[in-house]
Amino acid sequence: MCDDLTETDAARFLARAGTLDRRRFAALGAGAMTLASMPGCRAQGEPPALPVKGRDVAITTPDGITDAWFVAPTSGRHPAVLLWPDIAGLRPAYRTMAAHLAASGYAVLAVNQYYRGAKAPVLDSLVAWRTPEGQAKLKPLITQITPAGIMRDAAAYVGWLDRQGEVDTMHRIGTCGFCMGGPYTVRTAAAEPDRIGAAASFHGAGLVDTGPDSPHLLLPRTKASFLFAIAQNDDARSPDDKTTLKTAAAQAHRPAEIEVYPAQHGWCTIDAPVYDREQAEKAWSRMLVLFKANL
Fold it and tell me: Where is the Dienelactone hydrolase domain (predicted)?
């Protein structure tokens, strides 16, 4: 997750790279990027974008009502994808990213993981998480999220998706997650193994821990194929995690692409100060390959 060490890494990286000028920082803080202006809007090799339409939705879970954003191509039925945002939650950047994925032919649900305590957006950008005010807003909400709660949520979201006219239920469902959302993809696959066919984690946090419900220990309960895209600074801090994931996937007989990218934690999120266009496009293209093969 984007903890103090990760933030220190990011600050050092930006100081060395000199990539975050005042204009870009202001744009990030305002959540100003749109699908049309998003750097690297179409990854290399992607087909032409489909027109899409989105709407705000409310989804009942065992723990309350989730506010979320649902976006899909304007015509036809399509495989569904459940998108879990990073630590700063559902906000303009993730609506844009969901629309970008929908334009590749998917019905995408981007959820507010903090619905138990607040409606989205709690913060308007990842930059806001770096402020004392942003952390004061989010930290109490984070404590309300539990592994069991995420699995209850996932089951409710999958059920909701299967009832939507834009979703082709003849296909299995995909899930993708960023930062704290990365391990939620594994929990989703374990919660609904017969429906989840593929899961992609980008700079996921806490995929391997010492608890009995560590995400890597859930792989035997899944029937999905996986992509684990790991940030270089996360790998430097926990170099054994990639090996543990690889071993766990092999023992569970689950296909898993596991790669350390030459980029910082957060590199795939378009409003992150460390957003890396080249490496984000590469990771995104690997997700599209995963989804095409398994949904």
Answer: 67-293
**Residue range of the domain that includes 155:** 4-34+49-294
Domain count of the chain?
Answer: 1
Tokens 């609904």 identify what position? 192
Integer angstrom CA distances of residue 124 from 129, 134, 259: 9, 10, 30
Cα–Cα dist 257/179, whole Å: 17
CATH of the domain at 184: 3.40.50.1820
Q: Is residue 39 part of a domain?
A: no
pLDDT 10s digits, 137-180:
999 999 999 999 999 999 999 999 999 999 999 999 999 999 99
What proportions of the chain, in percent to the nearest 5, are helix, strand and coil?
A: 40, 20, 40
For residues 224 and 236, give the distance between their C-alpha atoms in angstroms, rounded to a whole number. 27
Radius of gyration of the chain (CA): 17
Note if the bond before 121 is cis, omega within 30 degrees.
yes
d(CA 130, CA 161): 33
Sign of the CA dihedral with 66 first, then 179, 107, and 160 last:
negative
40 is a domain residue: no
Q: For the segment 213-265, what is each residue's pLDDT rounded down to a tens digit?
A: 999 999 999 999 999 999 999 999 999 999 999 999 999 999 999 999 999 99
Query: Using CA atoms, how far apart are residues 99 and 77, in angstroms rounded to an integer?
Result: 16
Classify residue 41: in a domain, yes or no. no
CA atoms within 13 A on the CB side of 275: 23
**Identity of the residue numbered 4:** D
Please give the helix or strand (H or E) that residue 107 lies within, else none: strand 107-111
Taking only the tens place, the pLDDT of each residue in 191-222 is 999 999 999 999 999 999 999 999 999 999 99
Separation CA 188–CA 80 (nearest Å): 13
